[in-house]
Design a protein that fits this description.
The chain is built from 4 helices and 13 strands. By secondary structure, it is α+β, with helices and mostly antiparallel strands. The structure holds 2-oxoglutaric acid and fe (ii) ion (FE2). Pfam families: 2OG-FeII_Oxy_2.
Length: 220
């Protein structure tokens, strides 16, 4: 815990290098396997587990209440309302390590983030199905802490679609399927039209016995 109180903590002396992958004519991923160094990832993981209240979010599907297969929490400035979040709890106030992480991402990506959704995958049985974050504008920066999990990115054509939700013609990239191994301290950024033309998921991996935290920084 001492590290968290140290003002040098998470100050990013070096600017991490992001690898850019153009996945279609309008969509880009940026990828950095070691965005946060190992010692700091462990402190940040412990800090978040101690500070956050995790909620087993309930949603309604086909008229029935169901729990999401993971736990959630969130950070935002006071007064921010995100209607797509189904959590009952109020946002957490940005802690100082979270402010530093947010500031670094904002500097590197040249964007201002409004809130951060936190997912806790307790073990490999927790997951998130293929989806697009249609509510998120343009850019989502996603940090992994803890267990390594697979991250799949698939074009809408793989789901038998020909149009977007807004009836727009789809792009037609050569490669329609990506798999990343999201390791402790990694960053993946989805930008451009990724949420329009692609879906992403973190599938179940039964052999994973340890928890993973995922932080997605988003704009309203
Ligand atoms: O856990 C992850 O890496 C992805 C989470 C995600 O896609 C979401 O919360 O919308
Ligand atoms: Fe997502």
């Amino acid at each position: 815990m001492e590290l968290v109180r140290d003002s040098k903590w998470l100050q990013f002396q070096l600017t991490p290098i992001l690898q850019e992958i153009q996945i279609d004519s309008e969509s880009t991923l940026q990828w950095c396997p070691d965005f946060i160094n190992k010692e700091e990832t462990n402190s940040l993981f412990d800090h978040l587990m101690k500070e956050l209240n995790f909620e087993h979010t309930q949603i309604t599907m086909y008229g029935k209440p169901i729990h999401l297969p993971r736990l959630q929490s969130w950070f935002a400035d006071e007064g921010i309302v995100v209607k797509e979040l189904f959590q009952k709890q109020k946002q957490h106030v940005w802690t100082s390590p979270m402010q530093m992480l947010k500031a670094q991402l904002e500097k590197q990506l040249n964007v201002k983030f409004d809130y951060c959704l936190v997912n806790l995958y307790r073990d490999g049985n927790d997951y998130i199905n293929f989806h697009a974050d249609n509510e998120a504008k343009d850019i989502i920066a996603s940090i992994t802490l803890g267990a390594t999990r697979k991250f799949l990115v698939r074009h809408l054509r793989c789901f038998g679609k020909n149009l977007t939700r807004k009836r727009k013609q789809l792009t037609n990239p050569e490669k329609k399927d990506y798999e990343f191994s999201l390791t402790n301290g990694s960053l993946i950024v989805m930008s451009g039209a990724t949420q329009q033309y692609w879906k992403h998921s973190v599938p179940k991996e039964k052999h994973v016995k340890t928890p993973r935290l995922n932080l997605t920084f988003r704009t309203l």
